[in-house]
Write a structure and sequence with these properties.
By secondary structure, the chain is α/β, with parallel strands linked by helices. It has 2 domains: 173 residues, 3-Layer(aba) Sandwich (Rossmann fold), CATH 3.40.50.360; 52 residues, 2-Layer Sandwich (Alpha-Beta Plaits). It is built from 7 helices and 10 strands. The strands form 3 sheets. The protein has a 6-stranded mixed beta sheet with strand order 2-1-4-6-7-10, with helices on both faces. Strands 3-5 form a two-stranded parallel ribbon. Helix 1 crosses helix 4. The chain is globular and about 60 Å long.
């Protein structure tokens, strides 16, 4: 069996979970498909029944990132075993895990396990601070070991994977055309432009951000070495206040499904 990783991880937390899960499995990673990079989302990828794929995405407003849907249409499985992972910012993952599972099972994948993990919220460091932490990573490793046992079963003995979520999926509000601002502490290092998954930041002038492309993933904010980028917006401030008031002292725990 060939183990493959497929993920979208603007702030690196989803990637960290996939690495912990795969590192505990009995199969070396053959291929890594990082859909965070825009050029990788254009590739057509086909997996066989000799492949295992761990798919990981962050949760945005209770759903999977909708910008990935065209990319998912380019990915095809052929009775390919899959593990589905979502990572959310301590509020809820709502229908994201079910949506991820359904999207891939419709394209020839067979779900054998799934997990909802927690990462520091992209809008504030005061919610799920420094997660995934060592406890989360230990669970991820144990999850990988349990998947090994699952893979030892004959395919006809595998039960259908059932995860939390509802269909129709949670409705999405129209995204506001907001972008982070850049203050005068910026040193023009270009890290924000280099790692922006949407290529929304002008590498020649990092203060220029295309509002039509920006998905508010906060990659630029999290990766900026001088903390020069931030959202300056009343609506975003209200969301952050709500999150910090309701969730700063709440620790959501990992949920696993087999």
């Amino acid at each position: 069996m060939n183990l493959n990783l497929l993920y979208f991880s603007p702030t690196g937390t989803t990637e960290k979970i996939l690495e912990s899960v795969s590192g505990a499995m009995d199969y070396p990673v053959k291929n890594t498909y990082d859909l965070t990079r825009s050029e990788n989302r254009e590739k057509h990828i086909t997996f066989s029944d000799e492949d295992i794929v761990i798919v990981g995405v962050p949760v945005y407003a209770g759903r999977i990132p909708q910008i990935l849907l065209p990319s998912f249409e380019k990915i095809q499985g052929k009775a390919t075993k899959a593990i589905f992972i979502v990572l959310y910012g301590n509020r809820d993952y709502d229908d994201a895990l079910l949506e991820l599972k359904n999207r891939f099972e419709e394209r020839g994948f067979i779900g054998i396990a799934a997990g909802a993990f927690i990462g520091e919220h992209s809008y504030t460091t005061k919610v799920a601070t420094d997660r995934p932490d060592q406890g989360d990573l230990a669970i991820a490793k144990a999850f990988g070991k349990e998947i090994n046992s699952k893979l030892e079963q004959r395919q006809e003995n595998l039960s259908e994977l059932v995860v939390k979520g509802s269909f129709p999926y949670k409705a999405l509000n129209a995204a506001s055309k907001l972008v982070p601002t850049t203050d005068d502490t910026c040193i023009d290092c270009g890290i924000c432009a280099k790692f922006c998954p949407m290529d929304a930041i002008n590498p020649l002038n990092v203060k220029e951000i295309d509002a039509e492309k920006c998905i508010r993933c906060c990659s630029c904010i999290k990766k900026c070495p001088t903390q020069s980028k931030q959202f300056v917006n009343e609506n975003i401030d209200k969301i952050i206040t709500m999150l910090e008031s309701n969730l700063s002292n709440v620790r959501k725990e990992v949920e696993l499904f087999f």
